[in-house]
Amino acid sequence: MQIFITGGTGLIGSAVTAELLGAGHSVLALTRSDSSAAAAQQAGASVVRGDLSALDVIRRAVEQSDGAIHLAFSNDFSSTEAVTASIVEETNAITAIGEIFAGSDRPFAVVSGTPWIPGRSSTESDPLPTDGIVGGRGRTVTATLALAERGVRTSAIRMPRTVHNNGTGGFAGLLTQIARQSGVSGYPGDGAQRWPAVHALDAAVLFRLALEKAPAGTSWHAVGDEGDAVKDIAAVIGRKLGLPVQQLPEESFGPLGEIFATDQPSSSAYTQAQLGWTPTHLSLLDDLEANLTA
């Protein structure tokens, strides 16, 4: 299949692109800069130039593709307004892809996030949150899955808060960035709250499996580590960077502070059983230990 992909040169996207090409598929990547276009082409993908706001470019690329994966997001968490604007842009792009695929039974996998359920690990059957700072993404993914009723083989790949590779990525990467800037490896709350994680190379395999065989309208969990205590993550970061480790107020972590302080473990038992997906790469803590440098 020729697969159209947004965000194909990021941490997750570069792994997905390599996985698809290695499995014999071709990749048509949306790229917004000369450097990302060069990276995609060097990996073996074809490219179209544009960003998520280039809806006509996206529509033309999708029309010539056998399937699609959406990964791109601005990742501007500097303010609530910036996050909202990013979600609107993302929603418009996803909607454009879905409209082109309607009635075709072509596969369309969208990136999502694992939900958090008080008192237990979330599962694939739990609904996505639709309120809070990122609630708009949950509403968009839910609407996209409903396109199964219009002949699109949609699937949602729910990613944990940290998708990592070579000691960076996701919420753990943000903690590292904040630690470098502040001189303290901090964590909100008592640090006992748990974050799930997955290695990017493992997540890439799940995206491929979903394109190849996931039924329409289904959700899957790309979870390798069910839940690492945030204090344990901060401890590794502090040790590797040579910084003190301590509790910090939620507001120290910007608009994501409330989410950082939330206990949000997640399970992928159903995904592993149904799609035959097995994480095999380094856990988050082992990846940080092996690759994080001061």
Automatic annotation (TrEMBL):
Protein's recorded name: SDR family oxidoreductase
Superkingdom: Bacteria
Gene Ontology, cellular component aspect: cytoplasm
Database matches in InterPro entries: Epimerase_deHydtase, NAD(P)-bd_dom_sf, NAD(P)-dependent_oxidoreduct
Domain NAD-dependent epimerase/dehydratase: 3-81
One of the record's GO molecular function terms: aldehyde dehydrogenase (NAD+) activity
